[in-house]
TrEMBL record:
GO terms for biological process: snRNA 3'-end processing. InterPro entries: INTS2. GO terms for cellular component: integrator complex. Pfam families: INTS2 (PF14750). The lineage of its organism: Eukaryota, Fungi, Fungi incertae sedis, Mucoromycota, Glomeromycotina. It comes from Gigaspora margarita. This is Integrator complex subunit 2. It comes from the Eukaryota.
Length: 1047
């Protein structure tokens, strides 16, 4: 057992050995009895007669039993063993029949042989029955013990009051006879002996007649402990006590076995008190290794009182007469103090005033860090007892203030933290770690707790707390394996508890230092700490907050100076800035004025500088997500609310598929970019250079992105299209966009500016607030598929970002009385997005130049329609708004067939048809007709029946004019579509056409009319013919004549 106390040689309290003990030791060591004939050998006679020639043992004739033993030894085992009744031992169920059968005596040649036979029969039955019951449960063993106790005739020949000289018969049988024929031996008998109430008497003869096997016999007994029911473990204890009394020098062995197996703790303590002088040493070892063994056992009050008195006497002597050297003295005090603390918890010991005062004197000897911490644990364990006594309370105050003071900043801070947060469990954990004991600390009452807290002053605490760094370990307190765990926790509690506010201390420089020095994985508490710091800037307690935010210029300087690699400082600085801005805007929305510059949000100049996508990717992927796992969910939310435009699935997939980056020198990248630009006329050379750039990780391209995009794109647009070069620039731009979409998008817009805008340079905020400027770009962008795809991604980027920026701008004006309502803002945003989509549709219209290369227009339309589909899926309202605004009707057949989400128009197309604006009605009818043709289903059938046909009827048949208008000629062919699509509408379509035919026919028989009316009739007749209906007019030649014109 580990210990620190130097000890004297271990002696028994009673140095005068008993005669039997002297003889035992002599024989155990193999001493010659002829050399020490005066020893008391009475209990050892069978052992001696077995070892020595009887003819030389005349000096043993002084013992009256010698002749009896000689007769016992002379009995021939072969005459006895055959008479042993096998399988006669008790079994379950236990009955009295066995007892009666054992009572039948068998008379042999001599009295000794007959006695030996009876004894051996009981030995056999006991051993065999014990082996059976030991294999069962403890309850069965208890049942058997109770049965033996209730039946005195059972194993009666193993009782000395029945068999005279039994102590000589047993060792003779078990040690000298070969009992293998019976399947038993002396060890089995010793194991079974525990079941008998007189086992402690019989174990003496078994031990004295085999002294060299003492430890083996003791181990055999101890091993049977777990088989015994609790009520009968006293048998084992009494047997071991008998053995210790016989051979006190073996007490330490027995105690060691008990301790190792964690059994009979009270007996082990009694042995320590009565037979050993190593009380502190033994208890120190137990508390260090097997303290739980003591926790779940009951001890006699007298035993605990004796133990405590012995320890206090040792402590007082050590304080009065310190041992030398001083190191030994301090070590002894450490051990004693730890034991006293352990006694308080495990034995519920009570220290009187004198004992407490003696323990409190240890402070004057506490010159080592270990002793001071143990002394502090003593104060904490006994604080309720000490603080309740007014006489010794000042001693506690003095001692506590000496141990926990600003000079010892670690302890001072940690206990201020623990008491201010009422973390008594953590204080308890400190004691447990220091003492290495599972102790518990009593809860303080309100007065005592207030008394303790009064020892800590806020101004001193605040200054001490600023000395905390992530490397502050608070060593030896057992608070955490990682220093930052408790360091940041302490600072966080001080901050949230208002310590810095009350101490008038600004922690901005400390926070900035932690951000810049952060390492991965970042500490779990740093996110909460930054939020608490932000909150503390805005929250004034009884007076104005001393906290200041980190300077915007300092943060901008940091981001501008560190652009090549994303570090923990980038991630944490971004997290801080976005958290601060959200908090500032929240306060503003709550109508809390932020006139103080320290409480205003950071400007767009800073937020636009943050490489949001790159930082978010780093936080997600670094160390497989482990490095920033504690702030990533919140960081993701902040990014989503401040930079929604960066959440582009395609770009995330590009980033996901990237292979391991190969480092590139910045000069090498620059040289390749210059090669591309300078050798543009040599297509082959430029393509090879661009292919090299495609293979370079975007982090290395980012520095040269200005030259690459701003210089190269305009030149590519001016040249005749080179597909290979355009494909390369498309891939390179997407690679840049995947890590820094803000910069990639802005560079693209400035690179493709029209000639009119060449003198100006767009900035991100301008485009976010007015994304319509994007369509002022070079018109060649809309007929270059690769560049147009980039344009669409940038359009989506700024559309998403614009929503947020416009809402933020509106929020900034909330304090202005003239600010318009939120619904108007939403209307403006929707109108802007609708106009953007309308402009995109306009670029899909056929232009004269498209006749030269129709495939290009088809690619442009495909890309635009795919973009529109995604927009419509994200926001169905945009689909509705675009169609209410309208676009060229010749695009309707294309949009309905190539935009998958156009079927959603069915739900509100009737509103367009019923609109009061004739142009919208016409657009709605054209759209509805195409919807019916592309998606002939119940909903389009209802649309045709309830809205399309009635509206056409109203616009053509129910008007006073007797001629078809241009609008009528546009919408009447829709009837032919409906006729071919829906069988149930054919009669209604034919009836309407016939009515129109009648309307435009001459009122006098078959007279032929001239002019517009006749053209109208001819047009209707053609429609009837197209659905296989014969017109009433017989002038079909005239119909065929007019047909080409009307078509």
């Amino acid at each position: 057992m580990a210990h620190n106390i130097p000890q004297q040689p271990i002696l028994a309290h009673n140095t005068a050995q008993l005669p039997i003990t002297q003889a035992f030791i002599w024989l155990e060591k193999g001493g010659d009895i002829f050399l020490n004939q005066n020893l008391d050998y009475e209990c050892f006679l069978p052992y001696i007669l077995y070892l020595y020639d009887d003819s030389q043992l005349q000096f043993l004739d002084r013992y009256l039993q010698i002749e009896t033993i000689r007769k016992i030894i002379s009995v021939n085992q072969n005459l006895v063993i055959p008479h042993i009744i096998k399988n006669s031992y008790p079994r379950i169920p236990l009955t009295h029949t066995t007892i009666q059968s054992q009572g039948q005596n068998v008379q042999l040649v001599s009295h000794e042989a007959t006695t030996i036979r009876a004894v051996l029969q009981d030995v056999y039955d006991l051993v065999k029955s014990a082996s059976v019951f030991y294999e069962m449960s403890q309850s069965r063993v208890k049942e058997y013990c109770d049965f033996i106790k209730a039946n005195p005739l059972l194993f009666k020949y193993l009782r000395s009051d029945v068999v005279r000289n039994l102590e000589y018969y047993l060792p003779t049988i078990l040690y000298t006879w070969d009992l293998s024929l019976l399947g038993i031996n002396y060890k089995d008998f010793i194991r079974a002996l525990v079941l008998l109430e007189n086992g402690h008497i019989l174990i003496k003869c078994m031990t004295t007649n085999n002294p060299q096997m003492f430890e083996e016999i003791a181990a055999t007994l101890i091993d049977i402990h777990n088989h015994l029911p609790s009520d009968y473990k006293i048998h084992l204890r009494n047997m071991l006590y008998t053995m210790c009394a016989l051979a006190p020098h073996h007490t330490f062995f027995i105690r060691m076995k008990l301790t190792d197996l964690k059994i009979l703790p009270e007996f082990a303590l009694e042995l320590t008190l009565t037979s050993c002088i190593d009380v502190p040493l033994y208890l120190a070892g137990i508390l260090a290794r097997d303290a739980e063994w003591l926790k779940f056992n009951l001890f006699k009050t007298d035993t605990i009182a004796t133990l405590q008195n012995r320890l206090m006497m040792t402590l007082k002597k050590e304080l009065a007469e310190p041992v030398v050297p001083p190191t030994n003295h301090r070590n002894r005090l450490c051990v004693l103090l730890r034991i006293i603390c352990g006694l308080n918890y495990y034995f519920h010991s009570y220290l009187n005033q004198n004992d407490l005062e003696a323990c409190l004197q240890i402070l004057t000897h506490a010159e080592s860090d270990r002793l001071r911490k143990l002394y502090l644990c003593f104060l904490l364990l006994f604080w309720q007892r000490i603080l309740s006594d007014s006489r010794i309370r000042p001693v506690f105050t003095n001692a506590f203030s000496k141990l926990v003071n600003p000079g010892n900043s670690d302890l001072y801070l940690i206990f201020a933290y623990l008491f201010n947060t009422s973390q008594f469990e953590q204080i308890q954990e400190i004691c447990r770690e220091t003492l290495t004991l599972d102790v518990m600390i009593a809860q303080l009452d309100n007065d005592s707790e207030a008394f303790i807290r009064a020892q800590f002053k806020e101004d001193i605490l605040a200054k001490c707390a600023l000395e905390i760094e992530p490397t502050t370990s608070f060593s030896g307190l057992g608070l955490s394996k990682v220093p930052q765990d408790i360091a940041f926790e302490v600072f966080y509690v001080m901050l949230t508890g208002g310590v810095f506010h009350k101490g008038r201390v600004d922690i901005q420089s400390w926070i900035l230092r932690q951000l810049l020095q952060a390492e991965i994985p970042i500490h779990a508490k740093i996110g909460s700490l930054l939020k608490a710091y932000v909150r503390s800037i805005f929250e004034d307690h009884l007076y104005r907050s001393p906290m200041t935010k980190i300077s915007e210029e300092r943060i901008i300087e940091f981001f501008l100076e560190n652009v090549t690699k994303v570090t923990p400082a980038h991630v944490l600085m971004t997290y801080y800035v976005l958290t601060f801005n959200d908090f500032a805007k929240e306060k503003k929305l709550s109508h809390i004025q932020n006139s103080d510059q320290q409480k205003t949000a950071y400007s767009p100049r800073l937020t636009e500088l943050i490489q949001a996508r790159r930082i978010l990717t780093e936080a997600e992927k670094c160390d497989n997500g482990y490095a920033y796992r504690n702030i990533y969910p919140e960081l993701l939310g902040l990014m989503a609310s401040n930079y929604p435009e960066i959440f582009d699935v395609e770009s995330f997939l590009i980033e996901e598929d990237r292979e391991i980056d190969i480092p590139f020198n910045n000069d090498d990248v620059k040289n390749i970019v210059m090669t591309v630009i300078s050798e543009l006329e040599d297509s082959t050379e430029s393509v090879l250079a661009l292919k090299k750039l495609e293979a370079i990780a975007p982090e290395y391209l980012l520095i040269q992105s200005d030259s690459l995009i701003l210089c190269l794109l305009p030149k590519l647009l001016k040249r005749e299209q080179d597909p290979a070069m355009l494909d390369s620039i498309h891939e390179i731009w997407h690679s840049l966009y995947s890590i820094h979409p803000h910069q990639a998008a802005l560079l693209f817009i400035n690179a493709v500016r029209s000639e009119e805008d060449r003198g100006a340079c767009f900035v991100e905020r301008d485009i976010m607030l007015d994304p319509l400027v994007m369509f002022r770009c070079d018109s060649r962008v809309f007929r270059c598929p690769q560049i147009f795809q980039i344009f669409l991604k940038v359009l989506k980027f700024y559309m998403v970002g614009s929503r947020l920026r416009l809402r933020r701008a509106w929020q900034d004006e909330l304090t202005n009385k003239d600010v318009f309502p939120l619904n108007k803002l939403n209307y403006m945003i929707n109108s802007q997005e609708t106009l953007l989509l309308s402009l995109l549709m306009k670029e899909c219209e056929t232009k004269p130049s498209d006749s030269q290369n129709p495939d290009i227009l088809d690619q442009i339309r495909t890309a635009a329609f795919r973009f529109l589909h995604h927009m419509f899926i994200e926001n169905m309202e945009s689909l509705r708004n675009l169609h209410f605004l309208g676009y060229a009707t010749d695009l309707i057949p294309l949009t309905t067939r190539r935009i998958e989400s156009m079927h959603l128009c069915v739900f509100w197309a009737h509103e367009l048809i019923s609109h009061e604006d004739p142009k919208k009605q016409l657009f709605g009818l054209c759209l509805a007709g195409q919807l019916c043709e592309v998606w002939p289903m119940q909903s389009t059938f209802n649309l045709a029946k309830n809205f399309i046909i009635p509206t056409i009827r109203r616009k053509t048949l129910e008007v006073p004019e007797n001629v078809l208008s241009d609008e009528g000629k546009t919408i009447l062919p829709i009837l032919v579509l409906l006729f071919n699509l829906f069988n149930n509408l054919r009669d209604e379509v034919v009836a309407l056409l016939r009515a129109l035919e009648d309307k435009f026919s001459s009122s006098k028989g078959y007279a032929t009319t001239l002019g517009a009316k006749r053209k109208s009739l001819t047009f209707v007749s053609y429609l009837l013919t197209s659905i296989n209906k014969i017109p009433k007019s017989t002038k079909m030649d005239r119909v065929r004549e007019i047909l080409p014109v009307t078509q």
